[in-house]
Write a structure and sequence with these properties.
Blueprint: H1 16-23, E1 28-29, H2 44-51, H3 67-77, E2 84-87, H4 90-101, E3 107-112, H5 117-124, E4 128-136, E5 140-142, E6 153-159, H6 171-178, E7 184-187, E8 213-219, H7 220-223, E9 232-238, H8 240-257, H9 262-266, H10 268-272, H11 276-295, E10 310-314, H12 321-332, E11 334-335, E12 337-338, E13 349-353, H13 358-369
Parallel strand pairs: 1-11, 3-4, 3-6, 6-7, 7-8
Antiparallel strand pairs: 2-9, 4-5, 8-9, 10-13, 12-13
Length: 372
């Protein structure tokens, strides 16, 4: 009889892709997603001074986070501080919301393709994911016909812009989701990084929604390029009565964990105000432009991407996406992610990070396109 829960069962055997990544040298890493390794500017003096503030030596726990930190987040987002709940990360925020909305055995609608971490986060809470499809028709959109709740569906998950397809939520998508009359969990961690001018029908942030019930997620990891600082947030939005009940129940969860550290809360305003977000936005826009220019006239194409840190590269269907990724690594030393990591269909696709330094990015793209 196992001593461990089924929730933590997994096969640790590395797959062929992982083994090759371990065995072969990488000249150009186009999977880089750690902003602290991407040569971006940080105001090191301001960060160090804010983290060293003597107030961090005093333990004054607040279930939703300190009033000053909540006010700093609310000011950056343009929302009421009373609706802001601080967490140690966006991943923790998902765990709290699954606890709030679901009993074990319930399920949550979730987009596909999207970020594979959601499977683990849901499993650890005893929750299942019920996928709905994003389809590409010149732009990525929710396939409303696949929004099919079951008898135990308790919420719908949205990522805007989505990772890795880069599509923001649009009006028709939002209308289809709201018609389900389910609480919405909207991950907006990449929202500051627009890669094209907003269309008229792009849905605004759900953080200021005044009907139904919505939970909007973000954090310093993407907002300020500071994943190591461990500060995320939930903005509770929607109708006043529903939001008030959600906050009351969330307070019990938050008070049970009290997971956010005092130094990062004390430093929140300084961390949110740093130069890194603007630098990330500029770099991702320039690298995307370079990618589009490089693929012109080749057998590859870049599907429309609206925001975030990633772009897709659609390749000739002479082999599958893992075979392409393996060839790029083996023959050119270029590391990309195969599309199956994200359940991408209709490819083959590989996923490319837009965060690397410009020179490395361009050289890596040129090296892999030479093989297409």
């Amino acid at each position: 009889m196992s001593r461990f829960s089924r929730r933590t069962a997994h096969d640790p055997t590395p797959n062929r892709w992982a083994r090759l990544c371990e065995a072969l040298p990488t000249r150009y890493d186009l999977t880089l997603s750690n902003p602290t390794r991407a040569g971006l500017p940080y105001d090191a003096e301001a960060i160090a001074a804010a983290l060293a503030h003597p107030a961090a030596l005093s333990y004054a726990p607040h279930p939703f986070g300190s009033p000053t930190a909540r006010a700093a987040v609310a000011g950056a987002l343009g929302v009421d501080p009373a609706r802001v709940v601080l967490t140690a990360s966006t991943s923790e925020a998902y765990g709290w919301l699954f606890k709030l909305l679901c009993d074990p055995g319930d399920d949550v609608l979730a987009p596909s393709p999207s970020y594979p971490l959601f499977d683990h986060l849901a499993t650890f809470e005893g929750v299942a994911l019920r996928p709905y499809r994003l389809r590409y028709t010149g732009a990525w959109e929710v396939d409303a016909a696949t929004l099919v709740p079951g008898p135990r569906t308790r919420a719908a998950l949205i990522v805007s812009p989505n990772n890795p397809t880069g599509n923001y939520l649009h009006a028709a998508d939002l209308a289809a989701l709201r018609a389900l009359d389910l609480p919405l969990i909207c991950d907006e961690v990449f929202a500051p990084y627009a890669l094209r001018r907003a269309d008229a029908d792009r849905a605004p942030t759900l953080a200021r929604l005044d009907a139904g019930l919505a939970f909007v997620l973000g954090g310093l990891s993407k907002w300020a390029g500071l994943p190591q600082m461990k500060l995320g947030w939930i903005v509770v939005a929607g109708a006043a009565r529903a939001a008030a009940e959600a906050l009351e129940r969330l307070e019990l969860i938050a008070d049970t964990y009290l997971s956010v550290g005092a130094p990062v809360q004390q430093a929140a305003a300084a961390l949110l105000a740093g130069p890194t977000q603007a630098a990330i936005a500029q770099r991702t826009q320039r690298n995307l432009a370079a990618l589009r220019s490089a693929v012109a006239g080749t057998g590859a194409e870049v599907p429309r991407v609206e925001g975030g840190w990633y772009a897709l590269l659609r390749l000739p269907a002479v082999q599958d996406d893992e075979a392409w990724a393996l060839r790029f690594l083996r023959d050119a030393g270029v590391r990309v992610q195969p599309g199956w990591f994200y359940d991408l269909e209709g490819g083959p696709y590989v996923v490319i990070s837009l965060l690397p330094r410009a020179a490395d990015f361009v050289a890596g793209v040129e090296a892999l396109l030479a093989l297409v």
